[in-house]
Amino acid sequence: MEILIKGARIVDESKDFLGDIYVRDGKIEDFGKDLNYPCNTIDGQGLTLMPSFIDLHVHFREPGYTYKEDLYTGSLAALRGGYTLVNLMANTKPVCSSMDIVEYVLNRAKELDLVDMHQVVSITKDFDGLTLSHLDPLDERVKFISDDGKGIKSNIVMYKAMLKALDKGLTIMVHAEDEDLTPIDYRISENIITMRDIYLSKETGAKIHLCHVSTKEAIEEIRRAKAQGINVTCEVTPHHIGLWDNDYKVNP
């Protein structure tokens, strides 16, 4: 199948121009201006063509909470927004603490054949905040571990989790929250765990990814850590950027 898209805005990390793209059998064969191929032509004026997106932090809620979302509806929403690879959080029911659930999700993704899916496994078994033995059987299909929605309260548990993650080549996605401090000051709650886990990452060499960063102090700590070569990345969310806490309250 051949398609020629004419006059679209073409954007990637190094280009931004108005032009044409020629696609054959699902692959971009040519791009530029004033292309001419004898095939189905689409008027791209007013449209933007760019590489598809990756979302490292999604909740498709399957298994267990499919009244909220499931792998099919979540995939359709992802495609609608231009996302073709999604990373599914482990807060399902049961919690994704085993390869059995990973297998289920990956097989279902293959059946649907809509987007690529990665399944996150919990840091601690069933989010109990203590148990790490379920990490040992994980194979190379698992890239991330996270207790998203819950902070790891114990310093020694997080330290040991980082050692395991380093050994298995996993990235820890950190929910930076000390839940005991949240009712008093959510900023302190986030900042203290951010600083702790950056320090543990520095000491262990494990890679961490700080989820939904919401304070300027946390951002400053992350910038300092990256400048020191610590293996840390982060993400932010639209509601934490665009809203004040007296507009809409979202965890923490």
Per-chain topology:
Blueprint: E1 2-11, E2 16-24, E3 27-32, E4 40-43, E5 48-49, E6 53-58, H1 71-80, E7 83-88, H2 99-112, E8 116-119, E9 144-146, H3 155-168, E10 171-174, H4 186-204, E11 207-210, H5 216-227, E12 232-234, H6 238-242
Task: Please explain how this structure is put together.
The chain has 252 residues and is of the alpha/beta class. It has helices at residues 71-80, 99-112, 155-168, 186-204, 216-227, 238-242; strands at 2-11, 16-24, 27-32, 40-43, 48-49, 53-58, 83-88, 116-119, 144-146, 171-174, 207-210, 232-234. The strands form three sheets. Strands 1, 2, 3, 4 and 5 form a five-stranded mixed β-sheet that branches. A four-stranded parallel β-sheet has the order 9-10-11-12. Helix 4 packs parallel to helix 5. It is globular. The chain starts with a strand and ends in a 10-residue tail after the last helix.
Q: Please count the helical segments.
A: 6
Percent of residues in β-strands: 15-25%
The CATH class of the largest domain is Alpha Beta
How widely separated are the two ends?
49 Å
CATH architecture of the largest domain: 3-Layer(aba) Sandwich
Rounded to an integer, what's the Rg over CA atoms?
Answer: 21 Å
- In total, how many domains does the architecture comprise? 3
**Shape, principal axes of CA atoms:** globular
Strand element count: 12
Query: What do we call the CATH topology of the largest domain?
Result: Rossmann fold
Secondary-structure content class: alpha/beta
Order of helices and strands: EEEEEEHEHEEHEHEHEH
Largest sheet: 5 strands, mixed
Helix percent band = 25-40%
